[in-house]
Amino acid sequence: MSRQQRAKIDAMVRRPRPEGGEAEAPASVEELRAGFRVLMAEMLVPAGLTTRATTLGDRPALLVEPPGTPRTGTILYFHGGAFVVGSPETAMSLTGNLVTRTGVRSYSLDYRLAPEHPFPAAIDDCLSAYRALLDSGEDPTTIVFAGDSAGGGLAVTTCLAARDADLPLPAAIVTFSAGLDATRTGESMETKADVDPYFTREALEYTGAMYRAGQDPHHPLLSPAVSADLTGLPPLLLQAGTYEVLLDDSTRLATRARDAGVDVILDITADVPHVFQSFAGVLDEADEALDRAAFFIGQRIRGGGGVTRTSEG
């Protein structure tokens, strides 16, 4: 990345903002949600997209379509936000860029959030959305699960839930800085603590406790990076940056998935923060990572193509 890009991104992500667990009085859920909306509204969204509010399963969803005729396939996207904040709208920089680059439509799901709806409500909603796609006649070989942060975790755990429900599995899973370990036992929780601009252990425990609601953090659907049987998962692309305490969530899942016989690509970018792909159009590494994700999706969706570059990318 250029020095100018790096300085701009670093200044943006290190601005003071509500962050549960870092202040004397942790931010309220309402403050966290408002702050996240403000942060994500600054991200660039590609032009020319068509969006439409719809429903998928029992939940609202945002259908995002590329300019022109979409290619074969569907990206079922799960937004980030520590299971407590976020929405399809806050994830538009990510879904929009994936849709633009692949030419494939996306359904971005508005799953229920904690603390009002703790574990496993989000997974139930995501699985219900996948069932709805299958029931509508969608071919699972043309569906890819994707998500960032907590949503990346949901992409994995929803697939595990689908497998255990004897549903046909999607063609692939793509994650950006996935949250995959509620036990917080990865070495990066300590080794990256001084460089992560977003998270502290205390902040993650604050929101994590809302989602777990007293459940054992070792539950396979809370900590798939350390506890789940990953046998039978579809091909995985796990992207992360070296400036994040959640880095080892992805590295450990990749190791365990490989040992379980799963095709996996671990894609680590140096000196970038959590979900750096959100900075597409501002940060070269974000655009390059999204291009790699789009190429992977195009390879895995039957009848799909490769990457489509645009002026925004």
From TrEMBL:
Q: Which domain of life is it from?
A: Bacteria
List the active site: 149
List the PROSITE patterns: DEAD_ATP_HELICASE (PS00039), LIPASE_GDXG_HIS (PS01173), LIPASE_GDXG_SER (PS01174)
Q: In what ranges is there compositional bias, type Basic and acidic residues?
A: 7-20
Q: Which InterPro entries match?
A: AB_hydrolase_3 (IPR013094), AB_hydrolase_fold (IPR029058), GDXG_lipolytic_enzyme (IPR050300), Lipase_GDXG_HIS_AS (IPR002168), Lipase_GDXG_put_SER_AS (IPR033140), RNA-helicase_DEAD-box_CS (IPR000629)
Gene3D superfamilies the UniProt entry points to: alpha/beta hydrolase
Could you give a GO molecular-function term held by this entry? triacylglycerol lipase activity
Per UniProt, residues of the Alpha/beta hydrolase fold-3 domain are: 75-277
Enumerate the residue ranges of region (Disordered): 1-27
Supply the alphabetized keyword list: Hydrolase
Tell me the protein family, please: Belongs to the 'GDXG' lipolytic enzyme family.
Q: What is this protein called?
A: Alpha/beta hydrolase
Q: Which organism is it from?
A: Streptomyces sp. R08
What does the record give as the organism's lineage?
Bacteria, Bacillati, Actinomycetota, Actinomycetes, Kitasatosporales
